[in-house]
Design brief:
The structure is a single chain. By secondary structure, the chain is an alpha+beta fold. The protein folds into 4 domains: 161 residues, Molybdenum Cofactor Biosythetic Enzyme, Chain A, CATH 3.40.980.10; 59 residues, Alpha-Beta Complex (Molybdopterin biosynthesis moea protein, domain 2); 84 residues, Beta Complex (Molybdopterin biosynthesis moeA protein, domain 3), CATH 2.170.190.11; 72 residues, MoeA, C-terminal, domain IV (Beta-clip), CATH 2.40.340.10. The protein has 7 helices and 28 strands. It is elongated, with a radius of gyration of 30 Å. The structure holds adenosine monophosphate (AMP) and magnesium ion. Adenosine monophosphate binds next to α3.
Amino acid sequence: MSGPDTKAGRIAPPPLRDDCFALPAGVAWTPVEDALALLRDRLSAVTGTETLPLAQVLGRVLAEDVIAARSNPPLANSAVDGYGFAGAMPEGAHVLPLVPGRAAAGAPHAGTVAPGHAIRILTGAALPAGVDTVILQEDVNSDGRQIAFHGPLRAGANARAAGEDVQAGARALSAGRVLTPADLALLSAVGVARVAVRHRLRVAVLSTGDELVEPGAAAGPGQIHDANRPMLLAMAARFGFAPVDMGRAADDRAALRACLDAAADRADVILTSGGASAGDEDHVSALLTEAGAMQEWRIAMKPGRPLALGLWRGTPVFGLPGNPVAAMVCTLIFARPAMGLLAGAGWQAPPAFDVPADFEKRKKPGRREYLRARIRDGRAQVFASEGSGRISGLSWAEGLVEIGDGACHIRPGDPVRFLPFSGFGL
Ligand code: AMP
Ligand code: MG
C-alpha cells in the first residue's frame, strides 16, 4: 500500500486510533507475548512514500512490491569459459570442428553454430544460435581448429537459462522489505533503477529527570549524566530510523508538555525515558493520563518497570523506564517491533537460537526475564549482576538470554535462548 509521491510535504496514512494501546481490563500483569500481540494488532504504517534512485535507498522500507522489468539473466548464457555446441554428448571420446570467431560477455556471436560443430565461448556470453551446452575449457584439448574431449555431458551443462533467476514480470521484492546491499544488486539486475520507499520513521528521543545533566557537563552532588538519550538516539539510527534529539526535560509538567508538543511536531513516534511510573515526579505518565490517551502497561517482565504508552496529539509515545538497562531492553523487545510497524516494515521478530548455558539460574514463575549475555566458546555467559542500573553490563553484553515466563532451574549445559543484539539491528 502506498500513497502518491510527495515533493516537500509529508503525507501520512490515517492516524492511529485513540484506544490503540488499551489493555484488557482487570489484568494485573500482562505477559510479554500478550503485550506484543496487542502492539502487533493495533499499529500500522504512519509514514508517507517517495520514489528514489537505488543509490539512496539502502536501509529504507519498500512501499510497494517491485516487479522485474527484465529477466535475470536476460538471455541464456555460458556459466564457464569453454566451448559451446548443441545437445548432450554420450560417454566416450568426441572431436568437434570449431567454427571461426567466439562469443564473449557483451560481444555476442551473430551466426548460427551448425550441428556437430563447436564455438569458443566465455563466461557470461549469450549462447549463440545452435548452442545449448558448454564444456569447461579445462576438460578440452584444442589445436585452434577442433576440440577433443570425453563425454558424457548432459544437454544444457554449464549453461544458464534465460530468466532462471527471476522472470520479467515476476515480483522481485515485496512491500515492507528493508533494503539490503544484496537487494540493490537484485533490483539493478532486473532493470529497476528507482523504487517507491517510505520516509524514514522520525523517532524523537527525550530524557526526563531533574537529576540529569548533559554528558560532559559539570555534575553536582546527586546529578548524573544523561545516559539514555545518546543510547536511544543511536539505537533509532541503527534501526534505520531518523533520530530526532529533543534534549532533556526537567521534572516539571509545563516544560515536559512543551517538549512533547515539539516532539509531536517533528517526529512520527516519541521515546521518553524516566518518569513513566506513578510517582510524584513521574510526569510523563501524568501528562499522558491528562491527555486521556495513556495506558500503563504492567508487563510481567524483568527488567522493566511499567511502560507508559499513549498518544500525544496523535503521535505514539513510548514512556520507557528510566533505568538504562530497562530502557534498552524495553526498546528492543517492545518499541523496536512497534516502530517497525509504524515504519511500514511489518512486524519483525528478532532472530534467536538455542545455545548451552554457561551459568546457573533459578527463577520463579510469573514473568519473563532478559539477561545481558554473550557467547564465548559456543556457550552463553551472563553478566555477573542483574542490577538494572549496571550500564557496564549492557556494554559488556552482545545479546540477551530470554528466560520463559514459567519457573525454571537452568544448569550449565542446558539450552537457553540467545537473541544477539545484531539481530535487532544494533
Ligand atoms: P525514573 O523512571 O524517572 O524513576 O528513573 C529510574 C532511575 O533511572 C533513576 O535512578 C534515574 O536517575 C535513572 N535515570 C532516569 N533517566 C536516566 C537517564 N536518561 N540516564 C541515566 N539514568 C537515568
Ligand atoms: Mg525520574
